[in-house]
Amino acid sequence: MSTLHFTTIGEVIKKYREQAGLTISKLAELSGISKGAISKIERGETERPEFNTIKPIAKVLDMPKQELIEHYVEIHQRPDVLMELLKESVELSNVSLASKVALRFLQSNYEESHTLAEQLYHYVTSLTDTDIQLSLYEVVIKYARQRGMQTFLAKGLLQKYLIERLDLKRLDESFKVGEEILHYADFLSLEEKITFYFRMALHAHNTKRYVECIELCKAGLPLETADTELKARAYLAMVNSYYFLNNFEAVEKHLDIFEKFTYDFVSDATKTTRGIVKAKMKQFDLAIPLLRQCLDEFGKDNKIYVATELLEIYFQTEDMDSIAQLLTREQEFLPVNPQTPYMHILIGLYYQFKGNFLTRIGHFDDGMSSYITSLRCYGNVYALEEITKCMEDIFSSFANHSRPIDLHFVAMMYEVYNSIVGKKRK
Known about the structure:
Distance between the termini: 34 Å
Largest sheet: none
Oligomer: single chain
Radius of gyration: 30 Å
Helix content: over 70%
């Protein structure tokens, strides 16, 4: 029954006790709280009983914890009590209740706003439930924005960004959150700035914002004096961005610096990039042997990069035999559990190349199956440009082979489309 029907917590306790058919004496015996204390609470003489006093009583009476917390939020403003209520709300995984309690905590008049915001922020960073975290960071962000507390606005936005950027379906939306942080970066600590600039650089690369990727990486490089893995990966994203912008001179220049990092992926990435650049410059006689060597020597996680580059070269040179031979090795280079947007796109590109090859040699049904797999891979990261290009290849295959569009394939594409749209809406 809702506490809105009662004026005090004592009336709530009395109502539940009577419904349970317990005397005050029996409730005292079962809860471990003295009969006198319970009597005072029920009579309203103790208007704000300690939460730890009420908890065992509520447990005996089987009172919903959410109802108890909602009542306490209205009668208590002490930060220590509200923090305890917040922790109870988090244990219930009740997002809306936790947000309500967190706001009341910040609004408490017992301590300075900055102190309360700092306490809440540090508590939220210790949590593991990302849904709860996002909700509470939103409380911090909104409160800090209203109060002009730039430091906690910046910190809250950063933590929100670091969580939301992991959703591969919402990369564009989360990048916008990161862009807002650029206005408040000076309020972040040195470590937070480094994390922000490098994570945003990687994010920009994954969403094809190559100019922004370079700018963000360059903003982080002077701040980070150590050779960390995050720095190395951001540096590689910058190198790749120069490549996609056709600035091969910058690629070669920064590769000489990048290859000095000591992480396992650096050597493979350097060799692959050098081979890709030579291919881009139409130096196929140099690129093909180098990339074939990479394919034979690299670990499985890096081979997909090489395989897709080789396939592109083979199509450009009309080397159908080499394409057929490479396709027989797909188990060597197809990742089992891709972790990055770029990896999903590379796998999609491989299946798109495979679909092009199979339809071209007359294996139309198998080719269409590969195209569908390609669309699913692109759909995992909502890669619209790649999805559009794959659809163009599908319709070109029907046209080039003078085949009517089979309803079976239409149904398959429609199913993939619904899957992509459905995931995007989530």
